[in-house]
Amino acid sequence: MRARWWIAPAVAAALLVSPPGAYAAGEPVNGEPPVTQSGSTLTTTDGMWVGVTRPFAYAWFRCADASPGSCLEVPGQTSPTYPITSLDAGNRIRSRVTGSNPVGSASAFSAPTAAFPVSAPSPAIGGPTALPRLSPFPVVVVIGRTRGARTRITGLLVRGPAGAKVTLSCNRRCRVRGGATKIGAKRRVRLKRAERLYREGAVLDVRVTGRGKVGKFTRLRMRDRIAPARVDRCLVPGSVAPTRCR
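The chain above was modelled as a monomer; its predicted structure follows.
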């Protein structure tokens, strides 16, 4: 039986890819979309890519609503940062990151921000507005392969602010040792104890938290013959259950 390789990005769907080295003759592949981070000036991450050999290109779009068809490119905005202006009131903003190599190019869009208030251009991105978010907001990257009813996770990496607490837990269908660790000065931590073989039905939870700030929740449910089902949510201080990021 042939194994299938995949990269699970920070969105609900997983991207099926080929074994390492298969990208050398093709266009770049995006495995994790960019993320727009809040502030009086918005900042976009590059996302996760395979096969990019040239500098990234950036663009920003102003959207009337959450649908892609309502978005128009903002002229002259070609850097990874975007200053909020009065023209953004009542609209949403999203970034586009383009990766390229000698073969071609590919683009990935961030999710749109919430609509900016008409009365003031203060951003409301990715979580409840009453509390600040962890910054940079955590990203959970999962790499692995499936073979029949078994899933092997070969890489589990969490990127986020130094000092943030990362807690790992698993249901009774897996033998991963739970526990907590902290993100170091390099702003990333690899959860090697979770890199192992899982049975169908195993559920792996990753929580990234910081005192008084909105954190990150990712759940992976192992499935038969396909990449794990992924759910990403926000963790609000004082709330037991994860909530949708707004």
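Residues 7-24, 120-129 have pLDDT under 50 and may be disordered.
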